[in-house]
User: Fold Arsenate reductase family protein from Paenibacillus chitinolyticus.
Amino acid sequence: MSVTIYEYSKCSTCRSALKWLRAKGLDPVTVPIMEQPPTVEEIRVLVRNSGLELKKFFNTGGEVYRELGLKDKIGSMTEDEQLALLASNGKLLKRPIVTDGSKVTVGFKEADFEKAWG
Assistant:
């Protein structure tokens, strides 16, 4: 199985996810999420394939999210506006995002990874 992981090398959660995937015998293609955030269309596909709400893709604990006051703004934004915002700044995306082209996981919870990638 071929998987891609959108990650940030300084993020301990991303490092844990990579370590877990490699321990399972997977050799993920790594995409540096800060330098190469997914495009609007890529995010749209990731959201659709994940089965999650778009808001689950926001890094709500991140500095940029707080600086922009998004907690109070997200609810009034259109889906297209939210997608454009996510694609504009890799720091706004919850990470890691792992996909094989059909399945998607966001964040790292070992139980979720076992179910999806184990």
Observations:
- The chain has one domain: 4-117.
